[in-house]
Amino acid sequence: MAIEVPFGDLSPKTCAVLGGRGFLGRSLVFTLLKLGNWIVRVADSPHSLQLHLTDSSDSFLNDAISSGRASYHRLDVLDASSIVKAIEGASVVFYMEATDLWNHDFYYCYKIIVQGAKNVINACRECKVRKLIYNSSADVILTFEDMLSDLKAHAEALILFANNIDGLLTCALRPSNVFGPGDTQLVPFLMKLAKSGFAKFIIGSGENMSDFTYAENVIHAHICAEEALDSQMISVAGKTFDKIPCQYDVVCSLVCQMDT
Known about the structure:
Layout lengths: L12 E6 L4 H13 L2 E7 L11 H12 L2 E5 L5 H8 L4 E4 L10 H21 L4 E5 L11 H15 L7 E5 L4 E2 L6 H11 L16 E2 H17 L1 H4 L3 E2 L8 H10 L1
Parallel strand pairs: 1-2, 1-4, 2-3, 4-5, 5-6, 6-9, 7-8
Helix pairs in contact: 1-2, 1-7, 3-4, 4-5, 6-9
């Protein structure tokens, strides 16, 4: 799906993408740079930026860094100073998923997700960032399901509560089961499940439904949210958005892959 967002002012704006080397973060960075009116700060936990120039998005990012339209910043969400360095001067912060969570370590995950969110909020307020957009998850409404969903629900609540404090506008997007280029979790998990033979068993009535969202639609939603926080502030600021439309027949495509 080609992303076309109307911009009335084509003068460059500066944004920071926290988690910019993750699955969705990479795609968001690439799309922002392709739009042409963004200066993008890519922030993530690795100490240095490792680019694979055979990959089109990495090659494009390399050119953007060379021209000064992008930069890389090492990010530690537990170190307030590193967050400030990454976002200082940005008008909007896109807060994507962490790339280095250890699912078996509750305390570590709590620090990264919950304390990290607190630190990002404080840094945004200190740096006078205008907009903070959080990539949450539809799983937060079922916080009993797993530890990460519960912690992400806490982080989301903190970010929404920070709305309209010191001029900061916030919102959260809750995509479901995101898949697309670069996905290393959902589709590989489904394929492994199908090969195991357990996918043929149905527990319950079989009438339960689940949404799947193509990664490009999530990126489109983030960019639209950034615009809407200005143009439709009353309807967007401090709110969550659960449904992200997808033009693909996702369920059928996944079923076909599992049957082959």
